[in-house]
C-alpha cells in the first residue's frame, strides 16, 4: 500500500484502569479516596506509529508510575478535580514533545461509619463503609500546545450510577398516539432512574510549575464560587439533583431533567453546560385480575415487577446563553 493512500490523522495513548487507594492522615483522623484513573497523552508521537520509532514514547508503565507518584506527593489528592489537573499538568510540563494530557477519574463512594459519641452519634475517625455504587466523575484536558507557560485546562465533572426512586408524583400522558402505541397514559406511577450527570466548567489557565521537577501545582488563593476550584460544586450539584427529583411533580422525565439542569446552571456561575442521562428503571404492576384482586389502578397498585430491559433512555444538555 502506497503512502499516498492514508495518513495518521489522530493518535492518543496512555494507561487505563490505574487503581489508587490513598490515605491522608491528620493525627488520628484519617481521610481516604479510591480512584480509577485513565491518563492519556497527545503530542509529537506520530513516528511511533508510522516509523516504529519508540524514542517518542513515554511508556504506559511509566505513566502508571507517575500517577502513583503524584498521588503520593500531591496535597490535592483528596479532591479529584485538583488531583486530575495536577497529574495532567505534570505530564505536559515534564515532556517537551507532549502537548496535551487527558485524565479521567472515577471516585468510588466511601463514607465514615457512624458510631456512638459523647454527644450522640459521631463519625468514626478511621472506619468507613462503601456507600453504594454511585461514582464521582472527573475528566480534564490540559492543553500546552501553545506553550508550556500558556497551559489551558478544560474540566468536566459529575456523577454516575446514582440510583433513585419515587413512588408517586410522577405522571406520563399526552404523548403521541398512533397504531404503534399500546402504552396507557398514567397520572401516577413509580419513577426510578440511575442518574448520570456531567457539567462542564469554563476553561481555566494553569500556571507553569515553578520547581525544577515540575511537580508543583498551585491552586488559586482566591476561589470564585461555582468555579472548578470550588469544592462545594459537586455537593451542591448532587443536592440539586436529589432534591429536584424528590420534590418535582413530574410530568415526564424530560421535564424533570430540564428543571434539574437549569437549577445547577443558575447556582454555579462558571458551569457552562449540564448534561443528564436518565435511563428508566421500570416497575410494572402485576396483573392479579385472574384472582379478583385489583393491582393495576395506580391508587391500588402495590405489587410491582422490576423490569431490567428494554428501558427508556432520556438525555439532554442544557447550556448557558
UniProtKB/TrEMBL annotation:
Enzyme Commission identifier(s): 1.7.3.3
Subcellular location: Peroxisome
UniProt-annotated binding residues for 5-hydroxyisourate: 60-61, 172, 189, 253-254, 280
Active site residues according to the UniProt entry: 15, 60, 282
Primary location: other
Catalysed conversion reaction: urate + O2 + H2O = 5-hydroxyisourate + H2O2
Entry coiled-coil feature ranges: none
GO annotation, biological process: purine nucleobase catabolic process; urate catabolic process
Protein's pathway: Purine metabolism; urate degradation; (S)-allantoin from urate: step 1/3
Keyword Oxidoreductase listed: yes
PANTHER family registered for this protein in UniProt: URICASE
Summary of the function given for this chain in its UniProt record: Catalyzes the oxidation of uric acid to 5-hydroxyisourate, which is further processed to form (S)-allantoin.
Family: Belongs to the uricase family.
Name this polypeptide is given: Uricase
Organism per entry: Mycena venus
Amino acid at each position: 500500500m502506497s503512502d499516498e493512500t492514508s495518513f495518521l490523522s489522530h493518535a492518543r495513548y496512555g494507561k487505563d484502569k490505574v487503581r489508587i487507594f490513598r490515605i491522608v492522615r491528620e493525627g488520628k483522623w484519617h481521610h481516604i479516596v479510591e480512584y480509577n484513573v485513565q491518563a492519556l497523552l497527545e503530542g509529537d508521537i506520530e513516528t511511533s506509529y508510522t516509523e516504529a520509532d519508540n524514542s517518542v514514547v513515554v511508556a504506559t508503565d511509566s505513566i502508571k508510575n507517575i500517577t502513583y507518584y503524584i498521588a503520593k506527593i500531591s496535597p490535592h489528592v483528596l479532591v479529584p478535580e485538583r488531583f486530575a489537573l495536577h497529574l495532567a499538568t505534570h505530564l505536559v510540563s515534564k515532556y517537551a514533545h507532549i502537548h496535551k494530557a487527558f485524565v479521567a477519574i472515577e471516585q468510588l463512594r466511601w463514607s465514615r461509619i457512624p458510631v456512638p459519641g459523647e454527644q450522640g452519634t459521631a463519625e468514626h475517625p478511621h472506619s468507613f463503609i462503601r456507600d453504594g455504587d454511585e461514582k464521582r466523575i472527573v475528566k480534564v484536558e490540559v492543553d500546552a500546545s501553545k506553550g508550556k507557560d500558556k497551559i489551558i485546562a478544560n474540566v468536566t465533572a459529575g456523577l454516575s450510577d446514582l440510583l433513585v426512586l419515587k413512588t408517586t408524583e410522577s405522571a406520563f400522558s399526552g404523548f403521541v398516539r398512533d397504531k404503534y402505541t399500546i402504552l396507557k397514559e398514567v397520572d401516577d406511577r413509580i419513577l426510578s432512574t440511575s442518574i448520570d450527570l456531567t457539567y462542564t466548567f469554563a476553561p481555566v489557565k494553569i500556571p507553569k510549575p515553578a520547581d525544577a521537577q515540575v511537580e508543583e501545582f498551585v491552586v488559586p488563593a482566591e476561589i470564585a464560587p461555582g468555579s472548578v476550584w470550588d469544592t462545594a460544586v459537586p455537593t451542591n450539584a448532587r443536592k440539586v439533583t436529589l432534591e429536584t427529583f424528590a420534590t418535582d411533580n413530574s410530568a415526564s422525565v424530560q421535564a424533570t431533567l430540564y428543571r434539574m439542569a437549569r437549577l445547577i446552571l443558575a447556582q454555579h456561575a462558571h458551569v457552562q453546560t449540564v448534561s443528564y442521562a436518565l435511563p428508566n428503571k421500570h416497575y410494572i404492576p402485576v396483573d392479579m385480575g385472574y384472582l379478583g384482586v385489583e393491582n393495576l389502578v395506580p391508587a391500588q397498585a402495590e405489587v410491582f415487577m422490576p423490569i431490567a430491559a428494554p428501558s427508556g433512555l432520556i438525555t439532554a444538555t442544557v447550556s448557558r446563553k
